[in-house]
Amino acid sequence: MTVSYLLRRLLFTLPTILGVIVIVFVLLRVVPGDPIAMMIGSEATPEDIQRLREVYGLDKSIPHQFVVYLGNLLTGDFGTSISLKQNALTLVLGRLPATLELAIVAMVIAVACGLALALVATYWRKSWVSPVIDAFDSIALSIPEFLWALLLVLAFGVLFANLPISGRFDPARQTDFVTQFYLFESLLRGRFADALDLLRYLLLPALALALPLMAIISRVLSGSLREALGQDYILLARVKGFSAARVLLRHALPNALLPTITITGVHFIFLVGGTVLVELIFSYPGIGNMLFGAAMNRDLPLIQSVTIVFALLFIGLNFLIDLSYTLVNPRVKVG
Amino acid sequence: MNIRLIAGLTVLVVLVVAAVLAPWLAPHDPMTQSLFNQLLPPAWLAGGDANFLLGTDNLGRDLLSRLIYGAQPALLVMFVGATLSGMLGVVLGLIAGFFGGWLDAVISRIVDVFMSFPPMLLAIVLVAVVGPGVGAVITAIILIGWTRSCRLVRGEVLALREQEFVTSARVLGVSRLRMIVHEILPNLLPLLSVLFGLEMGRAIVTETILSFVGFSSSSIPTWGSIIADSRPYIYQAWWAMAYPTLVIMIAVLGLNALGDGLRQATDPLARR
Domain residues for B241? Predict the structure, then answer.
């Protein structure tokens, strides 16, 4: 993979980023009518509004406004949050680590459990276990993370256990974290009591996010495992007298993994998108939750920052996943 | 025996009956508050009242009646939202896949841009900007739903276009419009049935989420608003949040099954 290939791929994302900015501009600046009237209270006089319109350049044409807007974004000026009176981009970036931590923990759960389900279902493919896992997969797949989150709150927050259902950590706990990645930081610094507490709070929201992806991984991997088990090299391994478990883990699994890796990458992006709702239900202090606060207050600069940061995250992840295909699969030609 | 089709149709019929006959089926007015009957448990639990079969919410409103009335906005949003977003996606996907060239490039790029946002984020931003209401909810469903069907239809049409029966139609000099209507569309039917089932379920979930955050109309009870109202009292009255959650789950599973069942019924290969 050459540098010029990387640059070319990066260049391809530019039109998408521009499109994202256009949509945000249209949604937040053109649709709602007069942003000034929304920014200041009802006690403002028409003269005040007119003066502010000139200050913000809203008396100019739409294309002119767009160019100014684009210039602001490129210089990192996403505006000041109306409700929190701080730089909107700084606010969002401060919350981003919490969201990423949630998504990564969910991903780890999904991959670990999905892998286990597929292996169990394939190993006992002739018993009742396999159809049960199959049914579980169908249900886990069809139900979106929002409903899973509600169900988990009911089941493990209220009815059968008493896991925490709101927030990121015990508020009574001292928090002298240097970074915003609380879990990763406490693990690295060997503060396992803190890590355990954080994990208790993360478990339900992460599980709600993980369930649909877990089912997809289990499905796709079971399919390719079964296909792999019909190949000649498996027959050879059996003839050599290897145990069924060894044949499955050492021979079939490595050869069956590629489609699962591909689909996991694609669905990780959906998982990150799902954090918006799961954070809301669990009052988890990430950027999704911040979006709801901003939406309630009609805090347009903050809404805009969350939207653009999320879109850039999606585009960046897509880019990385595309690149990883070329690394994982030698058959994909770089060109 | 097409079990999925039967299960899906059953769920759909129950929903339609509940929505249409709500004024006759519901034992109470869904909006009437009663200070004496707050957070009553369901009739089969201790302290329950046979008058309020499923119990009441924090304002003493009958939960069963609210659930039944909640089928109305759910059904409206589901049919209108899924139909419109499906139509938009299918038309654009057909154009992109069938004509190719710069049309395909432009449409695919727009899909890429829309897919760069988490779907619910886009819905929330739209409704926050436009203001709450059923119209805004349906607009949000269309805005986030069309890209999925557009992408799938485009891919399917690209594959169909190369099939021999399409080539022979072209050789015979059949017009493009006729080719789309008579050759391509009938072969899209199995895909469209699955999509429609999925999108109807998604529309209900989107409506639930938007009314959960208070962005839907407030004059009719919606399943999402029942969930939102009961969320603060979850430790005193878990059932109030459990009903709408379960109802929505069954609706989503049923509608997905309906789509799958319809595919089986319309796909000549699957029928064999």
Answer: 37-266
- Helix, strand, or coil here: B58? coil
Q: In whole angstroms, what is the distance from residue B98 CA to residue B185 CA?
A: 11
Please indicate whether, in this complex, the C-beta atoms of B238 and A314 are within 8 angstroms of each other. no
Task: Work out the angle at residue A226's Cα, subtended by the Cα atoms of residues A221 and A231, and round it to the nearest 5 degrees.
Answer: 120
Q: What is the ipTM of this complex?
A: 0.88
The residue segments making up the domain with residue A45 are 14-74
Asked if A314 and A273 count as a contact pair (C-beta separation under 8 A), the reply is yes
In a domain? residue B272: no
A76: left (phi over 0), alpha (psi -120 to 50) or beta: left
Among A28, A147, A310, beta carbon nearest to B249:
A147
For residue B168, being part of any structural domain is answered with yes
| Beta-carbon separation of A276 and B121 below 8 A | yes
- Mean pLDDT of successive 10-residue segments in chain A (335 residues)? 78 89 82 60 71 70 83 84 84 92 95 95 90 91 91 89 83 76 84 85 94 94 90 86 86 86 87 92 91 84 89 89 73 54
**B9 in any annotated domain:** no
Q: How far is B149 from chain A (nearest CA, A)?
A: 16
Distances (CA, A) of A130 to A123, A198, A243: 9, 34, 20
The single-letter code of the amino acid at A298 is: R
Is B217 part of any domain? Answer: yes
Find out whether B143 and B126 touch, Cβ atoms under 8 Å.
yes
For chain A, the domain total comes to 2
Q: Contacts of residue A38 in chain B, CB cutoff 8 Å?
A: none
| Interface contact flag, B125 A307, Cβ < 8 Å | yes
